[in-house]
């Protein structure tokens, strides 16, 4: 391949810049030309291009967000849009494409691959909810940000003998919630993957509070997909008599400088994506399996089912009191 493209698509994630840098530098070292496509598939259809050279990606490895910008592109969900995308690739001589994003973005990459433009998906989303990979770029940074925020919340929660019910991101997944709950010493994580019982949580809190030298402040972490955070705080207050406040951490979790883990994994995955394209291989997703970067057929990868971190959930339950 002589010329490849790179884009970021869907919700941004810290470490996407590191992945774009790795893709660019790896491709340049293999003698390929690289085109940066702005705003995901939207920019492909609208021809929003940036010529990438080694210096274009200087000084971005430590920056959050994505300097290529990102977007969601409803038009690319149907084959008419994908065919337009293929025509644009042909027009500018793109022979391959690296798509950094979530599973929706990968579906688009699969469709484009089926039209003859080999695409490689690189998992970039803070939710860690891509089936075929143990790890997605941005997950570690987002969890660290959430932990930093909750540590701050704990100060005021403790001063007032209150309960803080904190919503963390994760539209369809509770991976952030469980890990963050463990890392902040929370009483409970409420996620979609495991049934929860507010009465039981409230009873445990009351028991802990009434013990000699017992605890007087509490943190409950709720995954965004569960929603109802305000209601949960109100119900906990009613059941326990402990004054409760709801806090939604929101998009702050998507920003900030990527952690070492995110920079390194993004670099490894971006590099691997280019190695595949250099061999003329497309329609693959790069992921992590048993702690090592690997790749898998795109459709097969999307069809996989990712086990929940039940073991971690159980550890939380057994150590939170
Ligand atoms: P997020 O979860 O942040 O929305 P995704 O990677 O799932 O991130 O991004 C969704 C985007 O992927 C859509 O807005 C659209 O641009 C693109 N996409 C392309 N093809 C599809 C498809 N078949 N289904 C869903 N999304 C698609
Ligand atoms: O998929 C990542 C994510 O941050 C989810 O956790 C969240 O539900 C969603 O994106 C928010 O999307 P938006 O940026 O469109 O509000």
How would you describe this protein?
The chain is α/β, with parallel strands linked by helices and 321 residues long. The chain has helices at 16-29, 40-46, 79-92, 103-114, 139-159, 175-183, 198-210, 229-240, 260-278, 298-303, 310-319; strands at residues 3-8, 33-37, 49-52, 96-101, 119-123, 163-168, 188-190, 218-223, 244-248, 284-289, 292-297. It has 2 domains: 3-138 and 258-303, Rossmann fold, CATH 3.40.50.450; 141-254, 3-Layer(aba) Sandwich (Rossmann fold), CATH 3.40.50. The chain has 11 helices and 11 strands. The strands form 2 sheets. A 7-stranded mixed β-sheet has the order 3-2-1-4-5-10-11, with helices on both faces. Strands 7-8-6-9 form a 4-stranded parallel β-sheet, sandwiched between helices. Helix 4 (103-114) links the parallel strand 4 (96-101) and strand 5 (119-123). It is elongated, with a radius of gyration of 22 Å. The mean pLDDT is 97. It binds adenosine-5'-diphosphate and 6-O-phosphono-beta-D-fructofuranose (F6P). 6-O-phosphono-beta-D-fructofuranose (F6P) is lined by residues 11, 102, 125-127, 169-171, 224, 254. Residues 11, 102, 125-127, 169-171, 224, 254 line the site of 6-O-phosphono-beta-D-fructofuranose.
Features:
2 domains, 321 residues, Rossmann fold, alpha/beta, four-stranded parallel beta sheet, binds adenosine-5'-diphosphate, 11 helices, binds 6-O-phosphono-beta-D-fructofuranose, seven-stranded mixed beta sheet
